[in-house]
Amino acid sequence: MVGSPLRTVPEVPPSPHRLRLPQMNEDGHVSISRRGLLAAGLALAAVGAMGVVSTMNAGAAETPAAPAAVVPTPPPLLPWGAKPRPIKKGKDGASSAALRASGASAANDIANPADQDVTPFGPKGESQRSGVLKKSRTAVPPLPPTAAEPVTGTGNVNYLYTIGKQEATVDGVGALLTVAKPTVGAADWHSLAEIAVQSADTKQAVEIGWTVDRSTNGDEETHLFVYHWIDGKSTCYNTCDFVPLAGASIAPGATLATDVVKAFGIQYSDGNWWVAFDSEWIGYFPGKVWSGNYTKGGIVQVYGEIAASTTTPCTQMGNGKKPDDEDAVVAAAAAKISSVTYVNGPTVALTVSKTSDLYTTLQSTDRTFRYGGPGKC
Fold it and tell me: pTM of this prediction?
C-alpha cells in the first residue's frame, strides 16, 4: 500500500528437515552442480541450527556407508548337548553306498545331469493331527517327466505315517534316525523320515530329515531335506527361505550314507530356526518369514512318511522291515527313531501311532521306537 513502510521479513535458515530433495540425472544420481548446492544448503543448515560454521567437500561421497550386516550365529551346542564339529564329508556326487563304504556321512550332490527335470515343489504331507490317512493333490508327477511325457493335470497323493508325537513347549528337538534307502514304487512319490517342531496351533513348522524322492532329487539315492510351513501353507524342499550356514560341510539336498544312524536337530535361537545334521549346524530359517511370531514349539513329531498314489502302495517305509515281524531278527533290524531330546522342554513322553496296517511301530521307551514295513508288494 502506498505510504506504508516496507516490512522486511527476517531470513530464517532452512531446517534440515525442510531441505528440498536435489534434482537427479536420468540415471538416478545427483548432478555435480546440484551436489554443490546441496552441500551449501547443508552447511547453511548447520550454521543456523548449531551456530558453528560447517563445510563439506562437494566431491566426496555424501551417502554414508551402510552398516555391516549382522550374520546370525548358531547356538554354541547342538540340540543334544554336543559342540558342533565338521562332519566327515565324501566326494561330491558320491552315491549313498559309496559314502557308507568310505565312512563318510554325506556329500553334496552334483551328479545329476544339468538337464534333469527335478523340482523342489514335490508333495509334502501335512503334520498329523488325528492319526488318520491324509490326502492331497499335486501337479508334480511321481517320476521326472520326459519330453515325450509332459506334465499334465494333477494326481492324488495319499500320505501314510508311523509317528511319535507329544504336545510340548520346547525351544528345539534332536533325535537319532536310521538313515535308510527304501524302494519307492514307480507310481509313488517318496519315502522319508524326519523330525518336526510345530507351533501349538500346528500352522507353523520346521522339519529336517532324509528322503528318497525322484521328483525332487532326480535319482533314487537318499538325500537330506529341510522344509517349513507358514500359516498352514506348504513351501518347498531345501530352497524356500532357507539360509545355508557359511562354512558348513553340506547343504540340504546332499546325498547321505545309508544303513547308518545319524543325529538330526532343530532349535530356535536368537530369532531364527536352526537345523543340524550329524555333528554340525547346516543353516537356518529366518524368524522374519513368520513375522517374528513363531518362537516356540508347541508340538513335537518324529515320523516315517510315504507319499503314494494309492492307500496300499508298493513302497517301503524306513528300511523296509517291520518291527513286529514274526522273525525276531528282522524285527530287531527295523528302522528306528531314538534318543529324542528336547531343548528347554519337558520330559520326553512320545505317543506312537500308525495310519495303516502296512507300516507298523514298536515302542521300546518313551523316546524310542522302531517303525516301517515293505508295503503291499
Answer: 0.81
